[in-house]
Amino acid sequence: MKNRINIRASRAEDVLGYVPHQLTFHPRESLVLLSMRGSSLGATLRLDLPEAGDDVRLAAFAETAVSYLRADGDADGSLVVLYTDSPEGADPTNPTSFAYWPLAVFLEDLLGAAGTPVRGAWVVGPDSFRCVQCRTSPCCPPQGHPKERITESYVNLELMLLGSSVAATAGEAAILVRSGSLPDAAPAIRSRARDLAAGFDGQWEAGGVFMRLLGSWDEAISSGDAEPGVLAVLLASLESHHVRDAVLVLACLDPAAAYYGAAAHGRVDPLRPVPPELAAALPFEGYLPGRSGPEPGADLFTDILLGSYEPPVDRERIARASELLALLHRMAEGAAKPAAGTMLAWLEWAQGRSSLAHEHLRTVLAESPDYRLAGLLESYFGLGTLPAWLRRPPGAAGQSPSAAA
Question: How far apart are the C-alpha atoms of 72 and 70, rounded to whole Å?
């Protein structure tokens, strides 16, 4: 997760220079909404633009978009950016001839009613940008301002100096996530993971194994670091579909919710202990921590996986889990490879980054066409659904709403 910065929304090109850095790629055919807190930018939301021409559909789309932006409870204003390859209307001098003019009107009404009135709205095309409502100098000429003003903006240059980079497309951004460096011990980790996968074949769902394994996942995610021996255990465990799904729940909540939810689904046999000959291979020996939230069970487990869980989740924890899965994906081979890629896609979706999720799934299915969960998620994410928790303020103190991309 990128560190958030405080910038002043003083010029259009500064705002438009900030958006791609927040998303990690240059959006196309997209709606981007930004919340404002005074003169500072807050949350960023990106959604694919629907086809123009159907006002009923555009109105429903606007309502959905605004419902997610409401997660920023501190917002007192908003900004709207429409990215399209066809920024001009039939009449270059008439803003209402722009195909997405009705959407801009719907958004202005809904955002105003939500207490976050629109303070600026722009259309960004392949070569130019302009205000949605303005087509006259000295503000915006009919042809718009040259796009170079965005790349030369103070904010864009400042972010580049701070080390931020922007991919040309969501696909390239997803490749960058998966193509980081490997630890020096990667060959040894892979070799150990192969041995563990063979040794634990048929044993991952034993209650004692499952509990200690989730404890190892929890420690690795919580610390943001893991020793090579732990990474080998985590990598080997990805061959179990039940472990894979439980880790996604663990990433959002805690290991107790993951364990008891999996047990309620019959994915774990609580009465099966750790086989004595395998006990030394599992680094975690403690007990799973309890939880103070909803009673863990089958419904909670399912609600997390489907994104229908409405209370806040730990978004910083999800971000750390995403970084861990990206590392494991780079080292994975065999059945663990599509599992890690699919989990990475789900974690991106859980943070609202649906474009990156789609790209990760596309890669998984290109390499493993029969990997069932990846195919199911591709269809599910294709409906445009985002997790219900993104409509709520973040649960942990100091977190900011995620950017949907």
Answer: 5
CA distance 68 to 401: 9
Mean pLDDT per block of 10 residues along the chain (405 residues) reads 50 91 92 88 87 92 90 87 81 74 95 94 92 74 87 86 86 85 91 95 92 93 92 96 97 92 92 85 69 69 94 92 96 96 97 92 96 95 87 51 45
* CA atoms of 78 and 226, how far apart (whole Å): 40
Spell 273-312 as b/e; 16+ CB within 10 A means b.
Answer: ebeeeeeebbbbeeebeeeeeeebeeebbbbbbebebeeb
DSSP string, 193-213: HHHHHHHTTTTTTBHHHHHHH
Q: Which of 76, 156, 87, 165 is nearest to 116 (CA)?
A: 76
- Whether the bond into 294 is cis, omega within 30 of 0: no
Q: Give me Rg for the CA atoms of the chain.
A: 23
pLDDT at 397: 28
- Count the neighbouring beta carbons within 10 Å of the beta carbon of residue 207: 17
10 Å CB burial of residue 143 (0-12, 13-18, 19+) is: middle
What pLDDT, on a 0 to 100 scale, did the predictor assign at position 288?
Answer: 60
- What sections of 126-169 are H helices per DSSP? 148-151, 154-161
Put the strands of the sheet holding 40-48 in their side by side order: 40-48, 30-37, 77-83, 118-124, 128-131, 145-146
Task: Looking at 224-335, list the stretches that DSSP marks H as alpha helix, in order from N- to C-terminal side.
Answer: 228-237, 241-252, 255-264, 298-306, 315-331
- Record the tokens describing residue 74, joined without a space: 């501190």
